[in-house]
Amino acid sequence: KLGEYGDWLVQRPKVGYALKVPMSNELVRTGWHFWTQRTRNGFERAIDCFTRAIGEAPSDFRAYEGLSASYLSLAIFGMRPPLELYPRFLEAHEQAVALSGLRPELRCNRAFGLYVFEHRPADAEAEFRRTLEEKPSLASTYVRLSLLHGSMGRFDQAFEILDRGKQVDPLLPTLAASEVLVRCWQRDFDAAVALGRRHVELHPYVQIVRVNYAEALRFAGRPREAIAQYHVASIISPDVPWLRALEGACQAELGRRSDARAMVEGLE
Fold first, then answer.
1. Are 168 and 136 in contact, with CB atoms under 8 Å apart?
2. Sequence-separated (6 or more) residues with CB below 8 Å from residue 147
3. pTM exceeds 0.70 for this model
4. Cystine design at 27: which of 53, 104, 153, 244 (Cβ 3.0–4.6 Å)?
């Protein structure tokens, strides 16, 4: 019944059975709290928590899972160099699998790596679909599979997966961001703007939702409104340089060359 947590159940002589929660438990919980902030600082603080948890309980698979997810997220969001972080993700991922088996969460993360960094979409799709068979309640799988379909121009499949994801977790921020992005890829910019406006109201502090909304506004021919959204996203995540790069490009489109040049110099 306890599944991967079964080794927490221990037998105490002349007493009976007891649930022995690892000392790393609080660090793991705190690490996932930082992870959900979806900022570079949040992911890096999560890595610190998960690393300390491994020091306290080297057999706690949850710490390795959190560590691998943090490395993957930093790479996916372009917050730190992917070539540097992807090998670290693979190493931590392998440790987690060795301790707990290839659970759906771990399979989903590995599939995303296959898709984004190894450019193996067929293998990634097969792993995503197997993840959904094993755990249809894992909302992040719908987000990632929809991006795979959308990036390959299979928009009907992308929206079908997104709709299924909404039934699982209608308020997941990355699901909202992905829906806007796929609409942009489809070049349905008006629909993307309408979705972006609604999702920003629901998730005002998630930078990727703001950025995708800004992209939709920009492609819809509304660059002044887009700049406002880029600016807010940069305030939320001031340590992510590509947000400033997008804002600078939009400034250049408006003919504000001095502002754009200042951003380029700041980035350099």
1. yes
2. 115, 158, 178, 181, 182
3. yes
4. 53
